């Protein structure tokens, strides 16, 4: 038997040249996006003022199974892909588990996360359409960083609305985006109508992703030759991220391994949707039946405590309505939550799969997440992003179950990025000032009260 190496790098020509569209194999489609004014399903043409054409097409295309990746995108991917598949031998040993733990590492590029996979694609299509620039929001800053790199590469202007508390807590993120000439505005801001409205009502607001999205969309539709781009949640983003899962599966196949469990953190669902894509395909087509687990923060529990309902994707209620697991567009995660993944909703595609019983979801508390993150850092020498550490936390729980049962399960998880810009959070954890926050049912009710009433 082949001795399994610590790291497996595919060669360049083993990198996929097509993305995989999971919707093509779903027995039932996610419910359509609705126009909030008319209550009617949104068409591809309706999206043209917001998204560039090719991306609007990808958003609505639920039948094309394999989508060619343009050469102009592959060229960029080759700078940092294929990304490695790593066997966590040291972690396994530390956990004294018979489980075999593999992770697909996406922190191996300058932006430090998987978000570059979709940023490159979206910037490429915008440039291809002859646009002048794009607008977006960023929470923790990874998406803004990835997109600013991609926009600088393709020569596009970029306007970023950054959630105000992150803008203040992570000045270096803003500085990195500045290196790539992005314009960064803390949100809520006085530069948009929706921002001014939120500031008038809540002058002390530290912002939320939903609020930054409203500002970025408004800016795009009121500026000539600009469109809006989003780093998660959307079908198009899950499509681009399928490269993670396709590469992981190719590498696992080479090793003769097949996961019993596939685990990923879930904010808006893009890395998870990408990682699980080929395995979910096997599951949907009856070829195999791996367990698939989404891990979310207990302080922002869309899957595990949210409602499956139509909701706005933003706080300002300017986006179409999507049917998804949501805490309500008015939900604000607690300020002491440092671990990212603070979006109120969840990918409609994953929401549908979860609703139909094809995957599971669990939540993890902040302190156990950082506990897992620091043990992982010591054993595997990579400082994980707090977001990624949610997955690590669940992997450790599953590995402990294997230790008790003696079962040597094969676990694959997504290590989505590095945490070098999250040192304030790591510091708070090490100095004991970090705390858990789990919202009460009453707190969640305030969020649910913001759900739109349909019909
Ligand atoms: C943005 C981000 C996430 C969460 O986003 P998803 O769309 O749910 O993947 C997870 N990890 C890292 C490192 C991120 O930057």
Would you mind describing this structure in some detail?
This protein has about 450 residues and is α/β, with parallel strands linked by helices. It has two domains: about 5-15 and about 80-110 and about 235-450, Rossmann fold; about 20-40 and about 50-65 and about 115-230, 3-Layer(aba) Sandwich (Rossmann fold). About 40% of the residues lie in helices and about 15% in strands. It is built from 18 helices and 15 strands. It has helices spanning about 45, 55-60, 70-80, 90-95, 115-130, 140-155, 165-170, 170-180, 195-200, 210-220, 235-255, 270-285, 300-305, 350-355, 365-380, 385-405, 425-430, 440-450; strands spanning about 5-10, 20, 65-70, 85, 100-105, 135-140, 155-165, 185, 225-230, 260-265, 290-295, 305-310, 320-325, 360-365, 410-415. The protein has a seven-stranded mixed sheet, with helices on both faces. A four-stranded parallel sheet has the order 8-7-6-9, sandwiched between helices. Strand 10 (about 260-265), helix 12 (about 270-285) and strand 11 form a beta-alpha-beta unit. Helix 5 (about 115-130) runs parallel beside helix 6. It is globular, with a radius of gyration of 20 Å. About 55% of the residues are buried. The mean pLDDT is about 95. It binds pyridoxal-5'-phosphate. Pyridoxal-5'-phosphate binds near residues 265, 267 and 269.
């Amino acid at each position: 038997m082949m001795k399994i190496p610590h790291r497996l790098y595919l060669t360049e020509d083993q990198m996929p040249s097509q993305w995989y569209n999971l919707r093509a194999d779903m027995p039932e489609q996610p419910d359509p996006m609705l126009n909030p004014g008319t209550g009617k399903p949104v068409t591809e043409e309706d999206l043209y003022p917001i998204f560039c054409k090719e991306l609007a097409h990808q958003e609505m295309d639920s039948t094309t199974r394999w989508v060619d990746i343009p050469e102009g995108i592959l060229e960029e991917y080759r700078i940092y892909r294929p990304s490695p598949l790593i066997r966590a031998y040291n972690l396994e040993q530390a956990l004294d588990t018979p489980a075999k733990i593999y992770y697909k590492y996406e922190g191996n590029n300058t932006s430090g996360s998987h978000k570059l996979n979709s940023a490159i694609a979206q910037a490429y299509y915008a440039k291809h359409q002859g646009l002048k620039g794009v607008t977006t929001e960023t929470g923790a800053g990874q998406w803004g960083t990835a997109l600013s790199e991609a926009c600088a590469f393709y020569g596009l202007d970029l306007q970023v609305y950054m959630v105000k508390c992150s803008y203040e807590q992570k000045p270096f993120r803003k500085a990195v985006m500045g290196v790539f000439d992005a314009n960064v505005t803390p949100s809520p801001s006085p530069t948009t109508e929706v921002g001014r409205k939120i500031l008038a009502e809540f002058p002390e607001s530290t912002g939320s992703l939903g609020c930054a999205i409203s500002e970025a969309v408004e800016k795009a539709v009121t500026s000539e030759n600009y469109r809006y781009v989003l780093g998660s949640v959307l079908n198009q983003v899950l499509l681009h991220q399928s490269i993670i899962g396709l590469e992981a599966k190719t590498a696992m196949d080479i090793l003769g391994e097949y996961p019993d469990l596939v685990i990923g953190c879930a904010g808006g669902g893009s890395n998870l949707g990408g990682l699980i894509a080929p395995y979910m395909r096997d599951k949907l087509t009856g070829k195999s039946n791996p367990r698939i687990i989404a891990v979310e923060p207990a302080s922002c529990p869309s899957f595990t405590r949210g409602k499956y309902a139509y909701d706005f994707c933003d706080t300002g209620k300017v986006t179409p309505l999507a049917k998804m697991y949501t805490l309500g567009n008015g939900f604000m995660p607690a300020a002491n939550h440092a671990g990212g993944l603070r979006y109120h909703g969840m990918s409609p595609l994953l929401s549908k799969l979860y609703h139909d019983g094809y995957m599971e979801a669990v939540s993890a508390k902040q302190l156990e997440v950082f506990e897992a993150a620091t043990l992982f850092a010591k054993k595997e020498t990579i400082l994980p992003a707090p977001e990624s550490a949610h997955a690590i936390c669940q992997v450790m729980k599953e590995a402990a179950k294997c230790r008790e049962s003696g079962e040597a399960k094969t676990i694959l998880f997504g290590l989505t990025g590095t945490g070098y810009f999250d040192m304030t959070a790591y510091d708070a954890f090490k100095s004991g000032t970090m705390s858990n926050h789990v919202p009460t049912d009453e707190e969640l009710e305030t969020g649910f009260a913001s759900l739109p009433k349909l019909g």
